[in-house]
UniProtKB/TrEMBL annotation:
Keyword entries, A-Z: Cell inner membrane, Cell membrane, Membrane, Transmembrane, Transmembrane helix, Transport
Residues annotated as domain TRAP C4-dicarboxylate transport system permease DctM subunit: 130-627
InterPro entries for this protein: DctM, TRAP_DctM-Dct_fused
Protein name, as recorded: TRAP transporter permease
Superkingdom, taxonomy of origin: Bacteria
Annotated function: Part of the tripartite ATP-independent periplasmic (TRAP) transport system.
Organism, as annotated: Marinomonas arenicola
Subcellular location: Cell inner membrane
Main location, first listed in the record: membrane
Membrane topology: Multi-pass membrane protein
Residues annotated as transmembrane: 29-48, 60-79, 86-107, 113-133, 145-165, 196-224, 311-333, 363-396, 422-444, 451-472, 478-496, 557-576, 611-629, 635-654, 684-704
């Protein structure tokens, strides 16, 4: 491919990728005003998250108003109206309404409580307009699905919930109560999800914007190229490494695909990878970026809030599963590279010594961030100091020194990047409020358990299907919030009960936990001490009243283990929420990669779905093994066998391991994979699986080498 062709492809790619970007207004005075507003919002949020002591309701209202104003000014109600002055006039009215909403809360909230929380005309008007503006701003930036979901939830509470029978019947609330809980209380728009948005999420999105502005993105790609250039299928590994590192910072799979794919996909095609495979690898790797600590998009912060487990613990237990995912994608790269004879790279990456010499300072901000988190500082404080570390470390760079202009640009870009996420999370708070108010979450969890017949595997399948359907209309973070609220209790209970039943059947139940069964069947105490058949243990556990089960789990499993099981349930849902990025018919990450590679979008989506199989395998390991929260020895064993098990599974799927596999060899690879990945097998069986895999690998390597010699 010549340089001229490269430039032509690049310009065509830029045109194709426009469909994945929000159509923003432009204009001299508008651009200046948005720039100034963005900087103001960034400075205000830094103040709020460091030394500010304002009431949370007012902060959340200000957060919504500020970023809602950015959305209203940048994104017209209809893309065709970008140049319409009339449309801009009405959007300026929306901005004024948002400002008025904040002022109303500041000056009239106390009057509402003085009246005994009885609405007057102003309360009705302001709260109604705020909810409607939330729906409209989300529609502009994220489409119709989420506003429709919010409307269904809100009308369920006040209208049609009482008309349906069965477990989802709800007697209903008055419209006044719904608007109060949605707007004035800390349960709805301005509840816990909003608090996460204006604190953790904003500070880390701002941190990411500063990193990109300081040249860290270029350093990441250069580092990935230098590390992978000598490997078989090097450009494919550049995509895996680069997308994994960039995705953790960017928080958006589509943005990750576009920013790294324009470099990695052409590199893979030059090296000899098929175009559709190159696009699929980029999509699969970019999707996994949000699984990679330390930032993980917004998921880690929301998970920490839901589980009440520290952010540091969340990213700590997420590391090994994330590595397993990227290794699984990397195995596909190696297999395809051997099959296509991609044994060398046309353009070697720069030496790693040169990359580190020129860009080592880019590592300092991440080191500062992680150190502060480990030392116990809050994530917002750590992110704030991390931003300062980015600025200081940039002064060690030759080409990316951050002066006042660059700092202001980074602040403005961070605020603009946050605008869509902010209005989305605030709107999703309305859905979460309905779920918690009506008890739909518990009902849904019970219903899933009933449908699955108490089977953890079938429960995971149902949650995966639900995540795929929701993911067609919801971004990953929103999908996780909704699914986590609805189905996490079901997964948690099934995992916890399976561990509890294992202890009961083996006779290892602690004495304190045994005492709970005195209330159910005093005659079973002796059997519990000796162990009992699993079906008998299940029947005995079923007799324990629901109010006592949580106490029983705490006493039997321990508070720390119970917390890790809760994290496991949420981590599984968070992983499954990623699958909509790579699963047809709606898979924007794969579509963005297809636009770069010039391949059919749907076929590219199918390829990405195949290459991202780790999104399903690793959650199964989480559910059935202590991959999260296990002791060091157990984690080493699980990780070792999982790595080789995933490689064997890829070989069985592709029919290739160093060389083409015969049908019997392919079946042997599948057997080896099952032996190494199947949970709780005896270690000697896992070793048998490892030996089979290694034998196939050595034989394939020898036959491949012989074939290469004969070809010469």
């Amino acid at each position: 491919m010549t340089a001229s062709n490269d430039s032509i492809d690049s310009s065509e790619t830029d045109i194709d990728l426009e469909e994945f970007e929000t159509k923003h207004r432009s204009g001299q005075w508008l651009t200046r005003f948005v720039f100034a507003l963005s900087i103001f919002l960034a400075v205000a949020h830094i103040y709020i998250n460091t030394i500010g002591t304002l009431p949370e309701l007012r902060i959340s209202a200000f957060h919504f108003a500020g970023f809602g104003a950015l959305c209203a000014l940048l994104v017209p109600a209809n893309p065709k109206w970008r140049d319409s002055k009339i449309a801009l006039f009405f959007d300026i009215l929306i901005v004024l309404a948002l400002v008025g909403m904040v002022l109303y809360i500041v000056f009239f909230e106390d009057a509402l409580y003085a009246r005994g929380v009885t609405f007057d005309t102003g309360d009705w008007i302001v709260s109604s307009i705020a909810v409607l503006l939330s729906l409209e701003l989300i529609r502009r930036t994220s489409g119709w699905f989420i506003p429709f979901l919010i409307l269904v939830a809100l009308t369920y509470v006040v209208l049609w919930g009482k008309w349906i029978g069965g477990p989802f019947s709800f007697p209903g609330l008055s419209l006044e109560t719904l608007l109060y809980r949605s707007f004035f209380s800390t349960d709805g728009m301005f509840g816990s999800i909003s608090r996460i948005s204006w604190s953790f999420v904003f500070m880390f999105i701002l941190f990411g914007a500063f990193l990109v502005k300081s040249g860290a993105g270029d350093f990441i790609i250069a580092l990935a190229r230098s590390l992978a250039s000598k490997m078989i299928g090097g450009p494919g590994f550049v995509a895996v490494l680069g997308s994994g590192l960039m995705g953790s910072v960017s928080g958006s799979s589509v943005a990750n695909t576009v920013s790294t794919g324009v470099i990695t996909i052409p590199l893979m095609r030059k090296a000899g990878f098929p175009a559709r495979f190159a696009a699929g690898i980029e999509a699969a790797a970019s999707t996994g970026g949000q699984l990679m600590p330390p930032i993980m998009g917004a998921g880690a912060f929301i998970m920490a809030s839901y589980t009440q487990v520290s952010y540091v613990t969340i990213i700590g237990v997420a590391t090994i599963p994330a590595i397993l995912y990227f290794l699984s994608v990397g195995f596909f790269v190696r297999v395809e590279a051997k099959r296509q004879n991609v044994t060398s790279v046309e353009e070697n990456g720069p030496p790693i010594s040169q990359v580190l010499k020129e860009g080592w300072h880019n590592i300092l901000p991440l080191a500062v961030l992680v150190t502060l988190l480990v030392q116990g500082f809050t994530p917002t404080y750590a992110a704030g100091l991390g931003i300062i570390a980015v600025i200081v470390s940039s002064w060690l760079s030759k080409s990316h020194k951050m002066g006042p202009v660059a700092i202001l640009d980074a602040m403005a870009q961070g605020a603009r990047n946050m605008s869509t996420t902010a209005v989305l999370l605030i709107g999703i708070g309305l859905v979460v409020n309905v779920i918690s108010t009506t008890g739909v979450g518990n009902t849904f969890s019970i219903m899933i358990s009933d449908w699955a017949g108490g089977s953890l595997f079938l429960t995971l399948v149902l949650v995966a299907i639900a995540s795929l359907v929701l993911g067609m209309g919801l971004p990953v973070t929103a999908s996780y919030i909704v699914l986590g609220t609805l189905s996490a209790p079901a997964i948690f209970n099934l995992i916890a009960e399976s561990q509890l039943l294992e202890m009961m059947s083996s006779g290892n139940l602690p004495q304190a936990a045994t005492a709970v069964f005195m209330l159910v069947d005093p005659g079973a105490i002796a059997q519990l001490a000796q162990g009992m058949p699993m079906d008998q243990a299940a029947a005995l556990l079923a007799q324990v009243p629901a109010d006592f089960k949580s106490m029983l789990m705490d006493q039997a499993l321990g508070a720390n283990n119970v917390a890790m099981i809760l994290v496991t349930a949420h981590m599984i849902i968070f992983w499954l929420s990623q699958d909509s990025n790579v699963t047809p018919p709606v898979c924007l990450t794969a579509f963005a990669a297809a636009a770069i590679a010039k391949t059919p979008p749907m076929r590219t989506g199918m390829m990405a779905w195949k290459l991202a199989k780790g999104l399903y395998i690793v959650p199964l390991l989480m559910a059935y093994t202590p991959l999260i929260g296990g002791d060091t020895e157990t984690l080493i064993r699980l990780t070792l066998f999982a790595i080789f098990g995933l490689y064997a599974l890829v070989a069985a799927m592709e029919g290739y391991l160093e060389d083409k596999l015969s049908i019997p060899s392919r079946l042997l690879a599948l057997v080896a994979s099952v032996l190494m990945l199947w949970p709780n097998l005896e270690i000697w069986l896992q070793i048998v699986g490892l030996v089979i895999f290694l034998a196939l690998f050595v034989i394939g390597n020898r036959t491949y080498a012989k074939g290469s010699v004969l070809a010469k």
